[in-house]
Amino acid sequence: MGVVVSIEEGRPDAEASLADLVALVSGGMERVNAQILSRTGSDVAMIPEVANHLIDSGGKRLRPILTLASADLCGYAGIDGDVKLAASVEFMHTATLLHDDVVDGSDMRRGRVAARIKWGNEASVLVGDFLLGQAFRMMVEVGSLRALDILSAAATVIAEGEVMQLTAAKNTGTSEDEYLAVIRAKTAELFAAACEVGPVLAGRPVAEQEACRAYGMNLGIAFQLIDDVLDYGGTSAALGKNVGDDFREGKITLPIVLAVRRGTEEERAFWRRTLEQGALEEGDLETAHTILRRHHALEETVARAREYGTLARDALDPFPESPMKSALLQVVDFCVSRVH
Amino acid sequence: MGVVVSIEEGRPDAEASLADLVALVSGGMERVNAQILSRTGSDVAMIPEVANHLIDSGGKRLRPILTLASADLCGYAGIDGDVKLAASVEFMHTATLLHDDVVDGSDMRRGRVAARIKWGNEASVLVGDFLLGQAFRMMVEVGSLRALDILSAAATVIAEGEVMQLTAAKNTGTSEDEYLAVIRAKTAELFAAACEVGPVLAGRPVAEQEACRAYGMNLGIAFQLIDDVLDYGGTSAALGKNVGDDFREGKITLPIVLAVRRGTEEERAFWRRTLEQGALEEGDLETAHTILRRHHALEETVARAREYGTLARDALDPFPESPMKSALLQVVDFCVSRVH
């Protein structure tokens, strides 16, 4: 088992293998950030307040970075199509987070009080809608119907994934396939779309569009699986700080799915009481961790993530060697290695 | 003062002056309804359940009717661009209603239990997002970037209007201008966009696009003002059944704005207690009605609606006489005459 190194967003060691990519797109990201700032503007003062509360809170902006990188990988030489689509992708993601907080009843987001606590559920729903509208306006400005098609389809799939998750929520009988269908839709689809629009903008053949889409899709799955593991403190034997949110919210993630499948009847009763009925008692998180360790559920989830990481790396085979390609390969390692 | 004739959706007398328009677009609306049905489909069973709960509940579908009508008025002769944009407009409207219910905490919608009561706030938020995504997908299929621009801008403006309303909510100091800005954005903008895309599809000159937009915008304002009056039972001296929702929810509408402006200090204290503080007592709705009557606030609101109705009618001047034009003029009378 690995040693816990709690790697949170913004900490230097987390940036290590993202550094090359961040450096390569830094010029573009400055323009994306300016675009984001200007497009949250509104005469209705509450809109930039709520939007910037979340946007300024220091996410990695991995999705818009992927859009810039895939456009660059494919030789996009236009003026600002990549910047506008990257900002659109980030707005779609932000809108999803705002709506998610309402759906999950979350109190915290990115280490800050959730917008819905500060401004109410109403504001979270409506500012999310505003950002989604602005995302589509930016896409329309870019003028690529194919990019619009990809991103509007993604918006639909993400919502479907969230509803699927709602339906599967608190059901400890969720199968691995069902769980993968949920995270493909709710997380990986936006990674895939963010990467696919790059070659589309650059007017590259369908094969390259599919390659970039496959890279994003598999990276997104790996990313989410590692997130699931991190929520139980990584693969270390000990529980760290700030873990257990998924457990307390009764979320069924892959470690749970694996542990339930391999568990005894007594263990299953434990998962039903804690996750389905939410009847939590002192020491339950520690018990959950013990059961997960007993069945190697966290390590197996990491192993699954590594497989998807390999698929993501392989997807880039058609592209010739370049600093951008190397940087995109490193991102896969970064995502998978966050865990230990 | 007029006599109360409670005209609700679906009752024959309400259909009277919509009848010509409904007849003229009936073929197109059958295809719109088929489109709506097929686009609420999803492997995730909860999505069509929630969507159809609202969609089947018998709204007039005035907005998609306006899209078909304006396309026809302008001689659109394409295959199904009008049908898909009309379905998009209805999905945008339905998404707004689903999100509104969460924002307002409403228990009822169109005489049915609100979706959020039956399936939860989560489902209302997410199915709204799904429908918005599907709306954009249909627009992309139509392929008109200008129509996409109009409708995505409308999505943004509607969300802005809703946030504006949230900010103004329960503030009895709201001015008439502020209130009009809210209903322009949250209600009239979608009427305007629904009408504007007709001439756009038909490839007509900007002057006709602006004429159709102006028709929709002014019709939308008139429509909302009459809705405000109907919520106090129309202009009759007596209170009818099923009225007072706005009052109980503390909504500031034009009748209230006018009554507050003309009111005594005692009356203003009444509005602050009931609308701002929500400290309702037995008999308050009757008192509200008495004060509104004392200041002719309902009649004046109807008078304002008539003015906007006139602007809507005048906007169609550039178009030659035709059965469709006559039908669109009648719609204005229908909207304004619902009240007495």
TrEMBL record, chains A, B:
InterPro entries with a match to the protein in the record: Isoprenoid_synthase_dom_sf, Polyprenyl_synt, Polyprenyl_synt_CS
Pfam families noted in UniProt: polyprenyl_synt
Keywords on record: Magnesium, Metal-binding, Transferase
Record PROSITE patterns: POLYPRENYL_SYNTHASE_1, POLYPRENYL_SYNTHASE_2
- Name the needed cofactors: Mg(2+)
UniProt feature coiled coil, ranges: none
Keyword Metal-binding belongs to the record: yes
Lineage, top-rank taxon, reads: Bacteria
Q: Which SUPFAM superfamilies match?
A: Terpenoid synthases
> What's the family?
Belongs to the FPP/GGPP synthase family.
The name under which this protein is listed is Octaprenyl diphosphate synthase
